[in-house]
Design brief:
alpha+beta; seven-stranded mixed β-sheet; 3 helices; 30% helix
Length: 223
């Protein structure tokens, strides 16, 4: 009789547990779902951070005059690569963020720094200009590509219309700030014309960049 009574109590306990367990299970599932949601949100944030590029600009530029090309050219002095260990040839992703600057090299070689600044920290003000790369850059080696970028750096402060030319290893090119202006919120901007000549064939590209509040240059899209 005691065995039957014990079995009855055990069965009642099981049924009682089964009656309330879905509520506990639901709460556990809810907590599990919330944890999954938070993990998904974090993954989405990381993916968005990797994907995001320069912010879209929907404002209009106020250009000062038409495009100009005038005056004698200025020539870039090509500098040799710094010795090891100051510079270690290191390649980085084509699209990345350094501090708050979006660095994107769609063509050519991807490496730290910009122009003859071989470290990101030294080149921080100009890193955003890397996005002005164009398809002809694919034919340049690192030294030639850095010379092209150095011309870009000098063009940010050169008089409008003054070509900044470079020559290295049989390849030549130039960068010219063809006009300047500002956005409605007061950011100073320049439009650049780039040329690269390879085997007598010249490739040309245009692009616009503006100075951000922190003093860095960032390529922008005109809308």
């Amino acid at each position: 009789m005691n065995i039957k009574r014990a079995a009855t109590y055990a069965l009642a306990a099981v049924l009682s547990f089964g009656a309330v367990s879905p509520a506990f299970a639901q709460r556990d599932n809810d907590r599990h779902d919330r944890r999954d949601d938070r993990r998904d949100d974090r993954r989405d944030d990381r993916r968005d951070h990797d994907r995001r590029g320069p912010p879209d600009r929907h404002d209009r530029w106020d250009w000062r005059g038409d495009r100009r090309r005038a005056g004698p050219p200025r020539f870039v002095v090509v500098r040799p690569r710094p010795p090891y260990p100051y510079y270690r040839p290191t390649f980085v992703p084509r699209a990345r963020w350094y501090r708050d600057t979006y660095v994107y090299r769609p063509y050519g070689m991807a490496y730290p720094g910009f122009g003859f600044y071989y470290r990101d920290n030294d080149a921080a003000r100009f890193l955003g200009l890397a996005a002005l790369s164009f398809v002809a850059i694919n034919a340049l080696n690192e030294s030639q590509q850095r010379a092209q970028e150095e011309a870009m750096i000098q063009a940010t402060s050169a008089p409008i219309g003054e070509p900044i030319e470079w020559q290295d290893g049989g390849r030549t090119g130039s960068v010219t700030a063809v006009r300047d202006g500002q956005t409605p919120d007061g950011r100073q901007c320049r439009e650049f014309q780039q040329n690269v000549t390879i085997g007598g064939k010249q490739e040309e590209a245009y692009g616009t960049a503006c100075i951000q509040p922190d003093g860095t240059w960032q390529v922008v899209n005109q809308n």
